[in-house]
Amino acid sequence: MIMKALKRGETLETGDGRGIPGPDVTKGERTRVRILDEAAALASEGGIGAVTLGPLADRLGMSKSGLFAHFKSKEALQVEVLVRAAERFTEVVIEPIREEKDKAKRLGLFFNNWLGWIEHPSLGSGRGGCPILSAHFEFDDVPGPVREQAANHNAQLYALMRRLVYVALPQADEKAMVAAIDGLALSHLLRFRLMRDPAARKDTMHAFEALMKNPPLKVA
Amino acid sequence: MIMKALKRGETLETGDGRGIPGPDVTKGERTRVRILDEAAALASEGGIGAVTLGPLADRLGMSKSGLFAHFKSKEALQVEVLVRAAERFTEVVIEPIREEKDKAKRLGLFFNNWLGWIEHPSLGSGRGGCPILSAHFEFDDVPGPVREQAANHNAQLYALMRRLVYVALPQADEKAMVAAIDGLALSHLLRFRLMRDPAARKDTMHAFEALMKNPPLKVA
DNA sequence: TAATAAAACGAACGGTCGTGCTATTAATCG
DNA sequence: CGATTAATAGCACGACCGTTCGTTTTATTA
User: Fold this and answer.
1) What is the per-residue pLDDT for A7?
2) Which nucleotides of D are covered by protein (CB under 7 A)?
3) I need a surface site. Which of B54, B125, B140, B195 has the fewest CB within 10 A?
4) CATH number for the domain that contains residue B108
């Protein structure tokens, strides 16, 4: 397999959305990504609040100070972890639905991908839950840049969902519908992770299908 | 107003569910309740993880060690905070619905009370959100007694909701219905607290009414 | 390869955390 | 009241936190 040499700053797209940094990317850039991925895995298990420098450095086999030098503060690191997780979310949950040519079917596909992400977020070695949703509840009342980033990501997600709803069910009230769908995803997270209910997915899908069949309608 | 003297261990029911400890209750018992209430207020603002001995002692105007002496460990304190919050939840959200004699209407009443609690949980001086739901997402992947307590409380809540659903809509699939209702409450929390959407309640109620009109049905 | 810049390290800092002790004060009861 | 017990304070500890700094190692480039 012949490939042209990568110049600095280029990345080899691998299709899984992760990308392999080219050899001429500065070393700092490479470890920076390593740090963010491992931090996301950590956040996946114990929430953003669990992203702490000591344990993170241990996992990466490097020193606290060496790690810290990549970021201006711990808060900045936490924000970047959320950004990175949001990128992965886009790649795993959102991007793939564009392959469905029947646009009306995209909403169902999106919801399905989302449930998959909630059950198994593709974040490094983490076997835990989605750090984005955790952050939403962890920081919903804590002012600061983390809260802003969380709210910002959620706003984008809501906007996307409203568009998907409008295309799939033009007669439905978009905002009420988004509330219902978002809610089903959140409740699924609880029943799957906290309650460990083996029937969680079945129940979620049953409710979702009923919702699609009889959505809240626009008010006249 | 004449009242009989309270014996030790008795509490004067005030109707607001809080109760005034009788004068013969040991002082330790009284401050213990004070601690739990203030801790719940703290948890309300920054999650259970924010219930930390130093700041809590400051708020109460007492020493860290004096406070700590009331509990075997910080973890035990956190669990008791959740228990206390769950008690208040029962008093504020669940108990009042028994006054509705038309049992079919109780589900709607419950949901309404729940939204009120989510917007303004009656927990001491805290102006933040519901510490129970925060704990669900904060500890859904963190093993330990806090997680167990959270899961336990949620299980009871789900059981109650299933019963309410069965009475109100016998033809509905209880578990799917619970998923949808639970989800609407969770999503409401996000739209109300994180997004600060002034229309949150309207959208939530719209979706809820559509759900009541066309619930997911039992499978044959 | 030598010169230069980037990255990682090790040690230390002030601070806060949870948790033991011992002494002291306050509540309770005979 | 005085005697006894419960409640609180004061203090110290070891661990970990985020952060800084000066040094050393490793990449990069000329």
Assistant:
1) 35
2) 6-12, 16-22, 27-29
3) B54
4) 1.10.357.10
The values of phi and psi at residue A216, to 5°, are -60, 130
- pLDDT (average), residues B33-53: 94
Q: Is residue A172 part of a domain?
A: yes
CB B154 to CB A183 under 8 A? no
Three-class SS of residue A11? strand
A116 touches chain B (CB under 8 A): no
Q: What share of chain B is helix, strand, coil (3-state, %, to 5)?
A: 65, 5, 30
| Segment B53-77, tens digit of pLDDT | 999 999 999 999 999 999 999 999 9
Answer for the pair A45, B137: CB distance below 8 angstroms, yes or no: no
d(Cα A38, Cα A52) in Å, to the nearest integer?
A: 11
The parent domain of residue A32 ranges over 22-213
Answer yes or no: is pLDDT of A43 > 80. yes
Question: B137 and A137 in contact by Cβ < 8 A?
Answer: yes
Nearest to B138 by CA among A131, A125, A196, A41: A131
Cβ atoms within 10 A of the Cβ of A159, count? 12
- Asked if A209 is an interface residue toward chain B (Cβ–Cβ < 8 A), one would say yes
B26 touches strand C (CB under 7 A): yes
Count of structural domains within chain B: 1
